[in-house]
Structure prediction request, 269 residues.
Amino acid sequence: MPSCSSSPELIDIGVNLGHDAFDPDREAVIERAVSAGVTQMIVTGSSGASTRTALALARTAPGRLFATAGVHPHHASELGDELFAELTELAQAPECVAIGECGLDYFRDFSPRATQRRAFHRQLELAASIGKPVFLHQRDAHEDFTAILREHRAQLAAGVAHCFTGSQEQLTAYLDLGLAIGITGWICDERRGMHLLGLVPLIPPQRLLLETDAPYLLPRDLRPRPPSRRNEPAFLPHVASVVARARAQPLAALAASATAATRQLFGLP
Prediction:
């Protein structure tokens, strides 16, 4: 799909467009993104309700918006047999391009860890059964996360470590598992993201994807600062420019490789 601006074409692989922060101006948010060169967006599903919303939004803009279908570890306790059956059906919709957001989060522990692990296993099995990639979340659970992934990796089509913020050791482990790496505005955070500047050059170009995780993770170095703390996909070019500088490559080259890699991993037109 051609860009509607002179900016390099980008794809936001993770935007929580169904979040109520976008209720007042969702259409305008999409228009601003397209004007900024973000021509396609993948709307994140992280619960039964948000997956339904993500798919509904994707159906309003075929070829522009896509969706994931999944249950975030925070909501793992909700993934009973009834929701899993519904998720299995929703995941097979053509607008759904990945299973997730799924994984483990031992930082918040909003669901018991054993329940998180069970929900993770089930969603990986679902992804394997229908041949779609996985959109992965991990926080403070690296060892269990990688152990579970290793059990299923041979059966999985592909996957991306969404919103990567980890160490070089973790990056190496994810690359060894054949995962793509999603980089957000965390790299723009002088308090906790500066280590990523040294890590992004280690990511092969065909494995480096870009995302905002909007409305979260507004880049802290964005100028002028938006009047609210809300992030939005129109700010993805700023994240891309920081990543490109860290990799010592032209923005256009980074955008081209990230866009091509995203299309290949998610099977986008």
